[in-house]
Write a structure and sequence with these properties.
heterodimer, A: alpha+beta, 6-stranded antiparallel sheet, about 45% helix
């Protein structure tokens, strides 16, 4: 960047001034302008893609949610809007710790049970799951939405073979994890090497069942 | 520019300078997502799309970007492409997006992408940069797919979601846990080295292999030193 010693007709101070300005432009202005423009273009591009993709993502998520609600509570064909934890508590319910939200299910205008989203703490963080409770107060289905349990051990909790053990259980107090072959309904056979996960899922189901029954009692639906 | 050079650039990433097997770049996502063949494939393809986009974009602007802001400009472009890929995956491939989770946004800091920008794209024209990205992406995807396949078959008894070894053996869970990733990757590198020694009849020297064609053209070897350092750190 030493341009002062180039020969020319202008006087030395003038030359230095011009060189300084040129250097200032090259070292300070140009990089800033280029970086700004690159940022601007990339942001613009992202805005366009976001506008395109966001409605599809929202729609897909809503559809997926509806499908999982329907899976755990096949008796219902439509679901009322989500009743979050705070709404339930404002309604005077004592909601167990792990309950996230509750969706009352309807069929032909009549109450058909509810689906409860719970997030009990497993071995690798919260396990997000949905529990369906029929209008008769018994569990109609359980699915695990997302989990971070040990692959090959705790992840087996998401398999139907484990989850179907909860079906038709109606008494929250009757659910119990056992480390042997289950003999009665309500006894849950723990997964080998994943006792913490088995207990967490059972805890979630118990809480969901409790919340659902409380909700039905309060609304006079049972 | 001749055809031979184009071919060299395209094929370098497949084996000679394979990002996983030879350059040991981007180890973190490679080990983390290769519990299933399908995840390895998905991760590889997502990274390839980002790599092609960023290599072409960076190569196109290489003459107007001042050296001083080179890295911020590259990272901005790369982050832009990653976010686009993530949005599109969330919209059209939600299952894969959920399974790959945090590793999609983390493509931004995957050393392969920045290393190719720094070593190759900023010194070559967009066509060569695109070929380089395709070759490197294919090599990355292939390596992840092989590692993922081995881990899934041995660790879960399935492949691409199909049950393969129903009663043959009890799947060894360690293979889909983190140690399995290291085991499979180490064995894969050893096998590839052995095969290339047998084929060429001479010992494959890792640092020479790492530099390969990019140094042969008198572009200097500075990039390789950076790559090796990054590869070791991640």
């Amino acid at each position: 960047m030493t341009q002062q010693n180039s020969s020319g007709t202008a006087s030395a101070p003038q030359k230095r001034q011009a060189a300084d300005r040129k250097m200032w432009y090259r070292e300070m202005v140009n990089p800033a302008v280029v970086l700004f423009l690159v940022g601007l273009i990339v942001t613009g591009l992202l805005a366009v893609v976001y506008q395109m993709a966001q409605p599809i993502i929202v729609e897909r998520e809503a559809k997926e949610k509806m499908a999982s609600l329907q899976t755990v509570l096949p008796a219902a064909d439509t679901f009322e809007p989500e009743k979050s934890r705070s709404i339930l508590e404002q309604g005077g319910l004592t909601v167990p710790e792990t309950v996230v939200s509750l969706y009352p299910g309807m069929k032909g205008g009549a109450f058909a049970g509810c689906a409860v989203q719970v997030a009990p703490k497993g071995y690798g963080g919260a396990i997000s799951m949905i529990v369906g409770v029929g209008a008769d107060g018994a569990i109609s289905g359980v699915i695990i939405i997302s989990q971070n349990e040990t692959p090959g051990l705790g992840t087996k909790a998401a398999e139907p073979a484990f989850l179907k053990q909860y079906n038709a259980v109606a008494d929250p107090a009757g659910l119990q994890v056992v480390k042997r072959v289950a003999t009665t309904r309500g006894e849950i056979e723990a997964l080998t090497g994943a006792t913490v996960t088995s207990r967490a899922v059972t805890r979630g189901v118990t809480d969901a069942l409790t919340a659902a029954r409380e909700f039905m009692k309060k609304e006079g639906l049972q | 520019m001749n055809v031979k050079r184009m071919k060299d650039v395209l094929t370098a990433g497949l084996l000679k300078e394979n990002p996983i097997i030879r350059l040991l770049l981007g180890m973190c996502p490679s080990l983390a997502v290769t519990t299933m063949a399908e995840n390895g494939l998905g991760m590889g393809l997502a990274a390839t799309v980002v790599l092609i986009g960023s290599n072409i974009a960076i190569s196109s602007v290489r003459n107007i970007v001042p050296d001083k802001v080179r890295i911020p400009v590259f990272i901005t472009i790369i982050a832009g492409f990653v976010t686009v890929v993530q949005l599109l995956m969330a919209a059209y491939l939600p299952d894969l997006n959920n399974r790959l989770g945090i590793f999609i946004p983390l493509i931004v800091v995957n050393c392969i992408i920045l290393a190719r920008a720094e070593m190759f794209a900023c010194k070559n024209n967009p066509l060569l940069a695109a070929l380089d990205a395709i070759g490197m992406g294919a090599g990355f995807t292939g390596a992840l797919f092989i590692i993922g396949s081995v881990r899934e078959i041995l660790g879960a008894g399935t492949w691409m979601g199909m049950t393969l070894t129903k009663d043959l053996f009890d799947p060894a869970s360690i293979m889909i846990l983190p140690p399995g990733g290291f085991l499979v990757m180490g064995v894969l590198i050893a096998v590839v080295n052995k095969v290339s020694i047998l084929r060429t009849g001479k010992k494959a020297v890792p640092d020479a292999a790492g530099c390969g064609s990019s140094c042969g053209d008198g572009e200097g070897c500075a990039g390789c030193a950076i790559v090796n350092k990054e590869g070791g750190a991640v």
